[in-house]
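Attaching the record inline, Q. Sequence:
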Amino acid sequence: MSVNAQALRGQWNMVKGQVREKWGQLSDDDLELRGGNVDQLVGKIQQKTGEGRDAVESFLNDLTSKGASMLSHAAETVGDYANQATDRFRENYTHLADQARERFEDSREVVRRNPAESMAVAIGVGFVAGLLVGLTLRSR
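Structure, as predicted:
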């Protein structure tokens, strides 16, 4: 059996803690993946622990396959949450757009039925806004 070197290199920082948990006698120096050389690492673990090569490789392969599975599951979960958030956003946006459209149509109808009153309100609001701006500028 051979270790999937590419998978191990990609997940080494995550896997290293679990290797140290299993074989506590290994130092940080022992667990250095120098130049990405997995064979040297396996040999160093064998030498320090007395485990057989197949046992070490099997353990490392199990860890990397679990890590890949966990990463895949995490990515899938994040994707699901993102899809749910997007769906909720679309629903809320559609609802708000419909409400805004209804209010606009209601306002148009009020102005159409009461043009004189609507003009008076618009002029009054403009006058009050002008007074507030003028007073604010004058006080500076």
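The chain has two domains: 5-69, 84-138. The helical segments are 5-22, 38-49, 53-113, 115-138.

More tomorrow.
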